[in-house]
Every structure is written in structure tokens, then in C-alpha cells.
Amino acid sequence: MGIIKVLKTQLLCHLIICYVFLVSGVLINLLQLCTLPLWPINKQLARKINCRLGYSISSQLVALLEWWSGTECTLYTDPESCSLYGTESAIVVLNHNFEIDFMTGWTICERFGVLGSSKVLAKKELSFVPVIGWMWYFLEIVFCNRNWEVDRKKVVESLRNLRDYPEHFWFLLHCEGTRFTEKKHKISMEVAEKKGLPKLKYHLLPRTKGFSITVQNLRGKVSAVYDSTLNFRNNETPTLLGVLNGKKYHADMYVRRIPLDLIPEEESECAAWLHKLYQEKDEFQEHYTRTGRFPGPITSPPRRPWALLNWLFWVCLLVYPLFRLLLQLVLSGSISTVICTFVFCFAVSVGIRWMIGQTEIEKGSNYGNKEVQLNNN
Ligand SMILES: CC/C=C\C/C=C\C/C=C\C/C=C\C/C=C\C/C=C\CCC(=O)SCCNC(=O)CCNC(=O)[C@H](O)C(C)(C)COP(=O)(O)OP(=O)(O)OC[C@H]1O[C@@H](n2cnc3c(N)ncnc32)[C@H](O)[C@@H]1OP(=O)(O)O
Ligand SMILES: CCCCCCCCCCCCCCCCCC(=O)OC[C@@H](O)COP(=O)(O)O
Q1: Do 63 and 25 meet the contact criterion of CB atoms below 8 Å apart?
Q2: 152: CA distance to ligand 1 center in Å?
Q3: What is the 220 CA–ligand 2 centroid distance (Å)?
Q4: Secretion signal: which residues (predicted)?
């Protein structure tokens, strides 16, 4: 047991995992590219194929979390709502505090069979991340500049596109718009005070425009809002590097299903509804801090083998050729070829480190960080 734990912290293992992710990812991106001619002929078939291809990429990160690090994801939700998860499309509203909250979200998606089709209102910068960003282009992910004047038209258009999507999907909204930091919290609470809204202790003040427009444009397509609140046990601060090192975390997610009919249509009422929701989410976090659990029963679906099987498939396919290639290189005796290979591998490692950096809060954006935004309002 100890040996496996040590093995998981070894650089060689990390390099192999990253190599498999990158090479399989680029191959899948190329397959996605091949579906382009199919779009004008049979758009729905092209979308379904892309869901499967997307699954093959994102499930590798799920496998890393569930099987490599052994992280436990516990779902607090009522059994009646739970029976509907995966059988309908929904808008998911989730707090944005953790570096791996996207992996936890994906893991829950995987357990309910909607991982391939899952969607998000994501910042535009993520569309440039190799493999994941390129995959998202084919999955019709909605990107925004986080500038309402610039975003309005494009976001509405992208949301309307999803109205005839052939698979059930969950559309994720981090209404806070950026990850929680003390500084961002302080500034957003000054905005709350100016607006006469109650202060939040665990959340940033939600931005309401994206939520209102999503509800408006997906009404009739999605059946409910899944209000989701995530926390990690024992004040864990999980990171992607921790997961890669095989560190086990304990995620707890509280989900309430709110039928879409209960959400007001009019924009200002919808915004007020969202502010109220965040006040409730703050209370759930307070409850969690006090008691170490969320209210209500635990209805956790077990992990499924598919993410692991997909991962093993890619490992088997790609690791043997890698070792053969390395062996050939060493045996070739050409110093310049060996040096070039090392330089190439180093450049790829720097690229991977940059990708991991995208998940790190301390390297996060300045959005919500500038006092100047206060003066504008
Ligand atoms: C059972 C299952 C349950 C759960 C499973 C969980 C999840 C699984 C689901 C799906 C998984 C899918 C994918 C996951 C994988 C990866 C994705 C991970 C992450 C990517 C996410 C991101 O990139 S987050 C960043 C981008 N997204 C957003 O920003 C969305 C939220 N933002 C908005 O909606 C915005 O409104 C906007 C972006 C549309 C427009 O931005 P803008 O800044 O222009 O916003 P506003 O016009 O709203 O802002 C102006 C108003 O805000 C007030 N203001 C000013 N300063 C502040 C401040 N510091 N804090 C708060 N508010 C501020 C200002 O006063 C304006 O007020 P108004 O009254 O005029 O509105
Ligand atoms: C098997 C897998 C091996 C993995 C090896 C390494 C692969 C690296 C993968 C990188 C994945 C990058 C996907 C990024 C998703 C991050 C989502 C996120 O959390 O974005 C932050 C924004 O919401 C807000 O940004 P800020 O304004 O807080 O700034």
C-alpha cells in the first residue's frame, strides 16, 4: 500500500499521465475536427459524436480524481430529486471556491451520465487551453469576456443554439464570475453594501446578468435549476497537483432541485431571486462550518468503471509506443536527436505546467479585484 502511495508522487508517473492526456487529447481533438463536414449534413449526429469524444477527454480527469487520488465525492440531496438527475437538462448554480471544483463537478456529471454533454458559461481565456479548450469548441460551450456590453449578443446566440441539443445537459454557472479570494470578497461586499444587499460570508456577490439570460433562453429546454454548494471536509484546500500526487480529498456537495417554473421571468425579479439564493447558500455553508455536514440526507451514486476503462484504454494504446520510441532514440546514438527530444519534452512539460496553472487561484484573473469597478457603478 505504502509503495503505491510513493509511486503516485513520482515525477515519472506524472509525466506518463500527462503524456497520455495530451496525446490522446490532441488525437481526439483531431477526430472532432473530422466531424466538421458532418455538421451541415446531420448536425444532431455530429453533436452526439462530439459528446462521446468529449467524454473520452474529460473522463480522464474524473478518473484521476476518483481512481488515482481516491477522492470521495458525497452528494447531499433528496432521493426524489436524485431520481431525476441525468434524465433532464438543468442549469447548475455552483459556488466557486476551489481549484478542483471543475473536476468535482465533472465527477458528479459522470455518475449521472451527462459528462460528455455538460456545458458551462466559461471565461474566454479557457478556450485557448489546449485539448480542453479545443474540445469545448466542439461541445458548444458558451464563452464570455465577462463584459456584459461585449457578451450580451454572443451569449444569447450561443444559448439559443442549445435549444435543440439532442442530449440532456447540465449548464454550469458560477454566478460569482471568479474564484473566491479575500480581496475579491471584500470588494464585492462593498458593492453589496452599496446596493443595500445583505453581506455574504462565504460567497462573492453573484453577477446576475448571465443567470437571467440563461434562464430566459433555456426556458422550455431545461426543467430545473440545481442549486449546488460544494465544500471540502476538514478545511482541505485541494489542488490539481495534489490530485496528481495521489492525495485523497473529501468533497461534499449539497444539491437542491428547483423547478424552473419557480424562477421569475422578469430580469430584475430574477436577479433578486438569485441574490436570495446566494443568501441561502451562505447559510448552508455556515451550517457546514458548524456541523461538518450539509442539511438533508446523503444520496450518493457510486463511482462507475467507465472513466477508468477509458483511461486504461488510452494508457495501453499510448505507453508502449512511447517506450519503443525512447528506446530507439537512445539506441540511435545520435546526440543531437537525443538533445532535441529532451528539449521537446521540456517544452511540453512547461506547457502542461501552464495548463495546470490555469486551475490555480493565486494565478487567477484580476476580475472582481479592482476598486475601479466600484466607481463605475
Ligand atoms: C446534481 C448535479 C449537481 C451539480 C453538479 C455540478 C456541476 C456540474 C455541471 C457542469 C459541469 C460543466 C463544466 C465544468 C468544467 C469546467 C468549467 C469550470 C470553470 C469555468 C467557469 C468560468 O470560467 S467562471 C467565469 C466566467 N463565467 C461567469 O462569469 C458567469 C457569471 N457571470 C455573469 O453571469 C456575468 O453577468 C456576465 C459574465 C454575463 C457579464 O459580466 P459582467 O462583469 O459584465 O457582469 P455584470 O454586468 O453582471 O456586472 C456588473 C454588475 O455587477 C456589479 N458589480 C461590480 N463589481 C462587482 C463585484 N466586485 N462583485 C459583484 N458585483 C459587482 C455591478 O454593480 C453591476 O451590477 P448590476 O446591478 O448593474 O447588474
Ligand atoms: C489525466 C489528466 C492529467 C492531467 C494533467 C494536466 C492537465 C491539465 C488540465 C488543465 C485543465 C484546464 C481546465 C481549466 C478549467 C479551470 C476552470 C476554472 O476554475 O477556471 C477559473 C474561472 O472559472 C475563473 O477564473 P478566475 O477569474 O478566478 O481567474
Answers
A1: no
A2: 13
A3: 31
A4: none
In this prediction, residues 6-22 reach a mean pLDDT of: 94
- How far apart, in whole angstroms, are the C-alpha atoms of residue 375 and residue 191? 10
Instruction: State whether the beta carbon of 176 lies less than 6 angstroms from ligand 1.
Output: no
- Asked whether the beta carbons of 252 and 76 are under 8 A apart, the reply is yes
Tell me if 77 sits within 8 A of 256, measured CB to CB. yes
* Mean of all residue pLDDT scores within the chain: 95
Please return the burial class of 95, using the count of CB atoms within 10 Å of its CB with bins 0-12, 13-18 and 19+. Answer: buried
Do residues 233 and 252 touch, judged by C-beta distance below 8 A?
A: yes
Q: Tell me: ipTM over 0.90.
A: yes
Q: Is residue 283 scored above 70 in pLDDT?
A: yes
How far is the C-alpha of 117 from the C-alpha of 259, rounded, in Å?
21
Q: Where residue 336 falls among pLDDT bands split at 50, 70, 90? A: confident
The rounded distance, in Å, linking the Cα atoms of 375 and 377 is: 5
